Amino acid sequence: MELSLVYHAGALGDFLTTLPAMRAWRRLHPADRIVLLGKSELAELAPRGLFDDAWEARSSFFAPLFSGNREAPSPPGMRMRGFQSALLFSSASSGLSASLKGLGLQEIIQQEPLPTGRMHAVDYHLGLFPGLTFTLEDRVPQISRAGNAAAVSPGTAALHPGSGNPRKNWPLEKFRALAAGLEQAGLSVRWVLGPAEAGLMLPAGAEAWRNVRLADIAASLAACDLFVGNDSGVTHLSAAAGCATVALFGATDPAVWAPRGRCVRVITAPEGTVEALSVDSVLSECCDVLRR
């Protein structure tokens, strides 16, 4: 059995958009033992059978691999013995490719982790494999749903008011007004809050999932009727989990970053100003999605 390495240590949304390309790599290496070198909390989201093992890329143990030294870096060099191929979502300047070449890997495919043009991120990554044919289903990220879901009653909407960049965020007061409108329409609202949303003032009595592990959030979102969020990793996670997802875009380009899933509605703000989206327009879109 040959050994193959996949490297990705980026953020949640970036990782999810690479999953179709990682599946393509598995298609090309069906009998290999494939190891993901990445973030452990993201590795838990990978569907069963995609990886045989996962190593934590942020561990100091692997730091010598990024030096670019063609001399076998030790001790990680010892652990990498026997690997024949690698798929790297990394900058060419990271030094990882050069180190792996020095360790004798015969096949190394490296790609800058973020697209620079207006091609969708999923399609950008799948462009690594021009010899393969991909269906529409192949172009949708698939994740594991093995996490522990919270108790979710029918008619639940989840709201995630944050992202990794404040410029992408619809104002909190509009999210609060949207929550009120959804509750008037008969839905129960759950807020999804991570470290980036610490300190946000939610409505009195609001129920929230705070700093829950991603695999569990994915399982919980899969049980919801609706999700509304900004251009964020959690919005991509909701779409990949199969939840009906309304994604709010302003400063970023949905042609590149729109989440993909079974039911995704993208609302693009005029002139790239997400603050310009009205509560009524977003609520109307949410109600339309729920009717379908």
Entry keywords:
11 strands; 5-stranded parallel beta sheet; Rossmann fold; single chain; alpha/beta; 2 domains; 292 residues; 6-stranded parallel beta sheet
What's the arrangement of secondary structure elements?
Elements: E1 3-8, H1 12-28, E2 33-38, H2 40-43, E3 53-56, H3 76-79, E4 83-89, H4 96-102, E5 107-111, H5 121-126, E6 156-160, H6 172-184, E7 188-193, E8 207-210, H7 214-222, E9 226-230, H8 233-241, E10 245-249, H9 254-257, E11 264-268, H10 279-291
Parallel strand pairs: 1-2, 1-4, 2-3, 4-5, 6-7, 6-9, 7-8, 9-10, 10-11
Q: Give the biggest beta sheet.
A: 6 strands, parallel
- Please, what is the oligomeric state? single chain
Strand content: 15-25%
- From the 3D structure, determine the CATH topology of the largest domain: Rossmann fold
- N- to C-terminal distance: 47 Å
Helix content: 25-40%
Going by CATH, the homologous superfamily of the largest domain would be Glycogen Phosphorylase B
> Biggest sheet, strands in spatial order?
8-7-6-9-10-11
Q: How many extended strands?
A: 11
Count of helical stretches: 10
Report the average pLDDT across residues.
Answer: 94
